[in-house]
């Protein structure tokens, strides 16, 4: 059975997180969920992940095209590898669940999140 992607989160680097959040809250009608990870300040607002911070910390976040939520992270990683993806960051816990980063065979880098 093929892997199912439950949702896609678009990533957007911003210069000023607090100044950007009201636009995305108004656009989506949803409140922002703010958090920090690895020296980066982030806000999840509906299907958007806004982030800012020092260039060296932000590079890890900015280098990923999108976040893909899946119902079974281990199965998604296995299926990705079987289809030709390579693991950039193995599955590990984060403040919002577990994540892994894969480079797809055509060059795109995606974060997979899930249980």
UniProtKB/TrEMBL annotation:
Coiled-coil regions listed in the entry: none
Protein source organism: Kitasatospora paracochleata
Pfam family, one: Glyoxalase_6
Highest taxon of the lineage: Bacteria
Keywords of this entry: Lyase
Lineage per the UniProt record: Bacteria, Bacillati, Actinomycetota, Actinomycetes, Kitasatosporales
Gene Ontology molecular function, alphabetical: lyase activity
Residues of the VOC domain: 4-115
Name the UniProt record assigns to this protein: Enzyme related to lactoylglutathione lyase
């Amino acid at each position: 059975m093929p892997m199912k992607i439950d949702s896609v989160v678009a990533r957007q680097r911003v210069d000023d997180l607090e100044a950007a959040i009201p636009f995305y809250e108004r656009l989506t009608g949803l409140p922002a969920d703010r958090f920090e990870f690895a020296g980066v300040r982030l806000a999840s607002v509906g299907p958007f992940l806004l982030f800012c911070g020092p260039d060296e910390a932000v590079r890890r976040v900015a280098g990923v095209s999108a976040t893909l939520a899946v119902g079974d992270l281990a199965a998604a990683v296995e299926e990705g590898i079987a289809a030709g993806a390579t693991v950039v960051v193995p599955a590990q816990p984060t403040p919002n669940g577990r994540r892994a980063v894969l480079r797809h065979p055509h060059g795109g880098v995606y974060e997979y999140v899930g249980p």
